[in-house]
Amino acid sequence: MSTPHLAVPHAAHESSMRGQLNGILFVALFAAAVTSVASLPAIAGLGMSPLIVGIVAGAIYGNALRDGMPASWAAGVNFSARKLLRIAVAFFGLRVSLQEIAQVGLSGFVESVVIVVSTLALGTWAGMKLMKLDRDTAILTAAGSAICGAAAVLAFESTLQSKPHKSAMAVGSVVLFGTLSMFLYPVLNRAGWLHLDTLGVGLFFGGTIHEVGQVVGAASNVSGEATHIATIVKMTRVMLLVPVLLALGMWINRAKKPAAHEAAHHAAKPRKLAVPWFAIGFLACVVVNSLHVLPETATHTVNLIDTFALTMAMTALGIETRVSQIREAGPRALLTGFILYVWLVVGGLGITWAVERLFA
Predict the structure, then answer these.
(1) Torsion of CA 33, 38, 42, 47, to 10 degrees
(2) What are the distances in angstroms from CA 202 to CA 109, 147, 216?
(3) What's the half-sphere exposure (Cβ side, CA atoms, 13 Å) at 358?
(4) pLDDT over threshold 70, residue 198
(5) pLDDT at 299 over 90
């Protein structure tokens, strides 16, 4: 005998699933269009990766045309901006190998660690104390400048579980100051103001420029060897994403500990540890890439798919972003990014000089 009262929930569930799938498909088609736009010579020449173009295009759509999208698709957009990005960040590790990092030796590692730690600390402090930003916006802005631009913002956004507009502000800082570096650094080098040899140029460019593409674009104006060194140093910074995310997860978990007078009330409820498991996946992919388990063609194909998945995530974040939310903290977030940029140029140059002398 049938049970009609179960038919309605089942139909509602099927409708919800269809809506989510349609939302994911919509984001995928949007990301495909974004990828085509990003491949145009005028855009690619500016070092604008599909990730950056995706969040800009998504934000334009989200604020101008979002009302035209069926409400049931929102779940698919949210899936792309949350769960898909975790998977994509994990597979980003296939772009890094331990052998490449070893090529630049201890000097590249020390440069990367000092830049990442100091920039994260300065950005969080300046954002929260000087600019009065909320914790998440300050950390996201610092992460984008310290580690690997938009990809780091995505990874931190997932761990912090922050609002999409906060990620958009951080990515805006990456776009502005990273693009500026791509044009400014080669000019400073040609003018002789940096006083760096080829190794120093690689350390400085790779250690302080925001996006991988921006590093390559800037260093290619110097020499092939400088580009090689800069890219490896940059990927060393990417590797540091794992320990930093694990430390962030533990810090968040400690911050959520109940007060002493609430301990008894919460004792029976196990707290969820804020560990970014996709960071472990990232490290596993680095190991796989280092062992050369996969054929080069397979790794290349997975990296292409991964870039597309990250583009989907950024596009979805853009769709969920509201200009009104950005406007509230926009100038303060931009000033935080500017403070970090001055630090990366001036402080980063000083760190590079010190590292070169230390390992001369």
Answers:
(1) 170
(2) 12, 16, 10
(3) 13
(4) yes
(5) yes
302, HSE (Cβ side, Cα atoms, 13 Å): 18
- The whole-angstrom distance between residue 162's C-alpha and the CA centroid of its chain comes to 14
Taking the alpha carbons at both ends of the chain, their separation in whole angstroms is 84
What average pLDDT does the segment 155-170 reach? 82
8 Å CB contact between 350 and 203: no
25's CB contacts (< 8 A; 6+ apart) are: 76
pLDDT band with cut points at 50, 70 and 90 for residue 66: low
Q: Three-class SS of residue 209?
A: coil
* Nearest one of 185, 189, 154, 199 to 49, comparing CA atoms: 154
CB 23 within 8 A of CB 76: yes
What pLDDT sits at residue 162?
81
Token pair of 287, please? Answer: 């190991």
pLDDT tens for 179-197 read 788 889 999 998 989 999 9
Percentage of the chain lying above the pLDDT 70 cut: 86
Residue 96's contacts (CB-CB under 8 Å, 6 or more residues apart) are: 235, 238, 239, 286, 289
Distance CA 102, CA 89 (A): 23
Of 44, 51, 21, 37, the C-alpha closest to 308 is 51
Residue 2 phi/psi, 5° resolution?
-75, 160
* Confidence tier at 275 by pLDDT (50, 70, 90): low
- On the question of pLDDT at 107 being above 50, the answer is yes
Other CB atoms within a 10 A radius of the CB of residue 163 amount to 18
